[in-house]
Write a structure and sequence with these properties.
Blueprint lengths: L6 E3 L1 H30 L4 H27 E3 L15 E6 L2 E8 L10 E3 L3 H6 L7 E6 L2 E10 L1
Parallel strand pairs: 1-2, 4-5
Antiparallel strand pairs: 1-4, 3-4, 3-7, 6-7
Helix pairs in contact: 1-2
């Protein structure tokens, strides 16, 4: 049985996030220059506040991207193949450019923080018996999310 934790993503998804990281770092550099110019030109406090808000927003996004990149692993291109998801299998799910590995486990052995999901949980029930290529819809606090099963190992 293969168990995986962390955040799996495609090579393309990883490169896209790395480009976003570089763009955000450049943007922060430009914002810092804007702050210096605004202070030197004695701009109004409201204009400086807007620039500082922009800086905070970009810095927060950069922190989130850095955290994802720190946890990310590139999804292997070649895997063994199983057809139907069942307890003990690791299911690779794609949502946009992000791929996540979850292992289906018995209720007593489940630990969602380490990627082991109970087959009796709503997510586990949605995955058991499904096949590679199937789409799974999940209701979350953030609304409906759709995942595609890209591999079962």
């Amino acid at each position: 049985m293969h168990t995986a934790t962390g955040l799996w993503m495609t090579h393309h998804g990883l490169k896209r996030l790395q480009r976003e990281q570089a763009d955000l770092q450049d943007w922060l550099g430009h914002i810092k220059l804007s702050i210096q110019r605004a202070m030197a030109d004695h701009k109004k406090d409201k204009e400086i506040e807007l620039i500082l808000f922009e800086k905070e927003t970009v810095a927060n996004r950069l922190k989130r991207v850095d955290a994802v990149l720190h946890q990310a692993s590139v999804l292997p291109s070649v895997w063994s193949h199983k057809t139907e998801a069942r307890a003990g299998d690791t299911v690779y799910l794609r949502h946009k450019d992000t791929i996540r590995a979850l292992t289906l486990a018995a209720a007593w052995n489940a630990d969602p923080t380490s990627g082991r999901v109970s087959v009796t949980s709503p997510l586990g029930q949605a995955l058991v018996g499904r096949y590679q290529g199937n789409k799974v819809r999940l209701s979350t606090i953030d609304g409906e999310l759709e995942y595609k099963i890209i591999k079962i190992v």
